[in-house]
């Protein structure tokens, strides 16, 4: 099946046809590095990480770019607040971004350029726009003339004549049109600056992405992505200046992810519901966070609540639990390493579960549906193992192994299940014991009491103890050699 993508520009799903057969060029707007990243940033990064992984799984040669905006009013303000150079602020938060995203098992992009490393390209594009009379200098700054670009507003679905100045843009009397946007900002006293034909200054926000994407991917490339909040004005302005400068289509497909809400409210610092990735990681396993972020279709909003996070955590326990059971029953699981999905052969690709997962992903990267397929596979292998309590036949073992390896392949695309089941549950156990949320002595004593109840055939008491342990997130496994226990998330 071919991949279909919802294109924001077309407002419908379109069959993906790359600029160059067999290759994908993808540019995604990264963070402005003046502060710590929040869970909304995580959703965008995780979504495009999965899209990149899936294209690679499908055999495409992917060039994935995610930029850093490392010069901006907010960065300059932060530098003044901390009394350091602006580059120190950028370096600090880029390092923090990597720590957060590495913890979330995000694969590094192929190129991660900084705006300040591309000043020559930025100035060259502004020169082109000036030469084509679609940009003008005024009051020391250089502006793009939006009325000179007939398609302005097409991406966001807005018409210039219907837009009201002051809603999303600053009113500036130096502009011909209130929606003209700055390409080059003249330097203010004490600010970092670069030399240009229009005097010392620094670039506006939008122009950097046109310069970096054009430099690395070319003047036309396949996919431009980012959060829905970037559609206007950022991506609208990028598209206008790029197509005006180069005279050709900028990006073929525009992909935008929905927001993360907190208990059904928009996340914001003013509401006090601003969740940093680093804080969420302290409470939840990275796989559980990814599972949550991918549990809705990427274009839909998603609601961060304790209930939803606990559901993702419980789901993760079920996945690792089933894989662990399969291993214990003798099913051979292919180890996933080096960013590859276990060396999937053509025969493996014909498995019904894997095919259903790919059908979901081919339909505009529908991870919500794909995760549903994954849990259907979990139910299937549990059903097979439950029906073979006296020992699995070779045929059943092969079937369970095939299904379990499909789950691992799905997990690779979703960026989860990089731990072995034993490592996952050992980690949960250590975390619980270290935090004091579980008392080892109490658990051991309750397990002993349950064993005694079973000896006397007091099944009611034995079941009650198991239920109490489950409330403590303690999972029991009755084996021929005794009872083992582990902690779920």
Oligomeric state of the chains present here: single chain
Total beta-strand segments: 15
Q: Quote the beta fraction.
A: 5-15%
Mean pLDDT: 89
Rg on CA atoms, Å: 27 Å
Can you say what the CATH homologous superfamily of the largest domain is?
HUPs
**Spans of 5+ residues with little confidence (pLDDT < 50)?**
336-346
Strand order of the largest sheet: 4-3-9-10
How many helices does DSSP assign? 16
Given the helix and strand composition, which structural class is it?
A: alpha/beta
Second rung of CATH, namely the architecture of the largest domain: 3-Layer(aba) Sandwich
CATH topology (fold) name of the largest domain: Rossmann fold
Summary tags:
489 residues; alpha/beta; Rossmann fold; Four Helix Bundle (Hemerythrin (Met), subunit A); four-stranded parallel beta sheet; four-stranded antiparallel beta sheet; 15 strands; 15% strand; elongated
